[in-house]
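Project standup — Tuesday

K.O.: blocked on the structure for the chain from last sprint. Re-posting the sequence here as requested.
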Amino acid sequence: MTRTTKIVGVGAVLAILLVGIPALINISGRWDLYYTLTSVALLSIASGGVWLTFYIGRINIGQGAYALMGGYVSAILVVKYGVSFWLTLPIAGLFCGAVSVLIGIPILRLRGVYFAMITLVLTEVARLSMLALPITNGAKGITNIPLPGAVEVFGLTLIPDFATLSNAKPAFYYLSIVLMILCFAGLYRLVNSRLGKLCRSLQQNEELASSIGVNIAYLRVVAYVISSFLGGIGGATFAAISQSVYPSSFTIADSINFMLNCFLGGLGYVFGPMLGTLVLYFGWDLLFQTGEFQLLIFSTVLIALILALPNGLLSLRFSKAGKESVGRE
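H.V.: unblocked you, prediction finished:
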C-alpha cells in the first residue's frame, strides 16, 4: 500500500466518522444512534489499552478497574471541587497511570495466567473501594455531574458549553470520536516506532530480548501505564455523558468484554479493538430479540468466530499489501 493510498484511506475514514455518519443520523432522525456510537468509541478506547498489554504478551482483564477509577476521579473533581471537566480528563488518565505503576511493578513480573488472574481481581477491588470510601458516596454514587463547560482561548470559543446545547448527544459523539482517533493514531505510531518494536520483542521471546539488552521491566510498566491511562480517559468521559458514576458502572463483565473486543477484532492489528468493539456491541443488541437464548447464542457465535478466525475479523482481509499487521500472524 502506497503512502498516497494510506492518506486517502485515512481521509475517507475521517470523513465518514466526522461528516457522513452525523449526516445520516440527522436525516434518519435516529438520535439514539449518537449515544450508541459514542459508547462504542469510548469502549474501543479502553479496549485499545487492553490490546497494548496483549502486545507485550500479557493478558489484561482489569481494565474495568481503571475505567471506574477514571470516572470517579473526574466526577469528584467536577462535583466537589468545581474543576472543569476538560482538566479532569487528563488528570483522570494520569491518576490511573500512577496507580498502575504501583500495581504494575510487582504484578508485571508474573507470567501468563497468574498476571491475568491478578488483573481480574483488580476490578472487584476497585468496585469495593468505591463502595467503602467516604469521598465516593458509597453505593449512592455521584450524580448530577454538570455537563462539560465551554473552552475559550483569548475570547474565542473553541468548545461550546454542552449545557447550552439543545441536544448534547452530537457534541459527545464528536468528543468520543476525536478521542478515539487520537487514541488509535497514537497506538499506531507507538507500535511502528523503535519503542514498539522493542515491545514486540517481549511478545515473541522475553529471555532473548533480555539477552540483547532490552529493559523488559521498563517496557512492561510503560505499556501498562499507557493502557491504564486510556482506561481512565474512557471512564471519565462515560461519567460525563451519563452525568453519574456508581461502583457498578464498570464490573468484571466489562473487563472481560474489553479483552474479548481485542480477540474478536484481531490481536495482531492496531485497529482490531475498534472493530471488535463495534461487532460485539451491535451483535449483543441484535440478539436481544432472542430473549432468554440471547446469552447462549451470543456465546456460541463468539466462540465459533474465535476458533474459525484465531487472528480476528481483520484477518479476513486477503490483500497482504493492505494489511497493517503488527503482531502475530
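K.O.: great, moving the ticket to review. The beta strands are 142-143, 151-153, 156-159, 244-245. The two ends are 18 Å apart (CA to CA).
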